Every structure is written in C-alpha cells, then in structure tokens.
Amino acid sequence: MIVAPVVAVDVLIVLIGTSVPSLRLNATVAEDSQHPMAIDADGITIVHYVFVCLNSGATVWLAISYAYKGLLQLMAMLVAFHVRRVKIKALNETKETVVIIYINSLTLLLWIVAEFVFYSYHEAYPTVFGLALLSGASVFLTLVFVPKMAALYSGK
Q: What is the pTM of this model?
C-alpha cells in the first residue's frame, strides 16, 4: 500500500522529465577527446566524433530525481531505526534492512557519480552505471538471502 504512491511519484518525475521539451537532453556532435585525430596508411585523416547529450534543465531535473531518492533513503533509515525495537525475532530484520539501505546508498552514490562526472566519457558512463546496478543487486542477494537460505537448510 505504501509502495504504490512512492513508485507513482518516481514515475511522475520521470514522465515530466521526458515529456517537457525544455527538460529533454539535446544531442550535439563533438570531437572525441579520448580518440585523437589520426592519419591512416593511405594518408586519410580520421577524426572521431561522439554524440554528447547536454541540457541545463535536464541537470536540474536529474538533481530533483536524485533528491527524491535521497529522501526515500532517509525514510528507509527511519523505518530501520523503528524496526530494531520489534521483540519477535522472526519479524526483527534490522540487519537485513541496514544492509539494503547501505547497498542502495552506495548504488545511488555511484549513479550520481556516473551521471554528473562521467557524462562526457562515453565509454566510462555506461560501465559505472551498469556496475552500480549489478553490484547493488548482487551484494544484496549475497548478504541477505544466502545467510537466510543457509539457516533454513541447516535447520536453525
């Protein structure tokens, strides 16, 4: 019940950011600084170009989106703080909640770094973004579900 409005706000942020023309990214062609101009064996000059997507409005909109995600992280920390007081051991998932918050915080930090620092490095940006997605999911599954499955199969 709580998740639907949170997801709806996030979807609304994405929809507004993509539907308002002044907030969309504009693609421009720029000379590739990672691959300098070269002359091949036939004497033909080879100049590498890349598409760079920039827009100051889009940067502000990304900052709003990440601020919302940061607010969700703070709300999750508050929930984790209150969950630790549960007396029933089966319902007290404080360690798992803290792990989820920690992993999501690191993933969010990697996304912000990838978005604002590596946007002009067309090879590094997707790598960092993909690693943030994969590492978040992998570490979460490893640290949360593997111990639970091990306890389940060992009979503890």
A: 0.58
What tokens were used for 31?
A: 């000379």
Contact 125, 153 (CB under 8 A): no
Q: Taking a C-beta distance cutoff of 8 angstroms, is the pair 61, 96 a contact? A: no
Instruction: Write the DSSP assignment of 2-59 as a string of letters.
Output: -HHHHHHHHHHHHHHHHHSGGGS-EEEEEE-SSS--EE-TTS-EE--EEEEEE-HHHH
State the distance between the two ends of the chain, measured CA to CA, in whole angstroms.
Answer: 32
Amino acid at 48: H
61, with CB counted inside 10 A (0-12, 13-18, 19+), is buried
The Cα 121–Cα 129 span in angstroms is 12
Which pair of tokens denotes residue 54?
């920039």
**Each residue's pLDDT tens digit, 17-27:** 777 777 766 77
- Whether 44 has a pLDDT exceeding 80, the answer reads yes
Fill in the DSSP letter of residue 155.
T
**Looking at residue 120, what is its pLDDT?**
65
Place of tokens 């570490």: 139
Residue whose tokens read 């080879």: 46
Residue 155 gets the label, from left (phi > 0), alpha (psi -120 to 50) or beta, of left
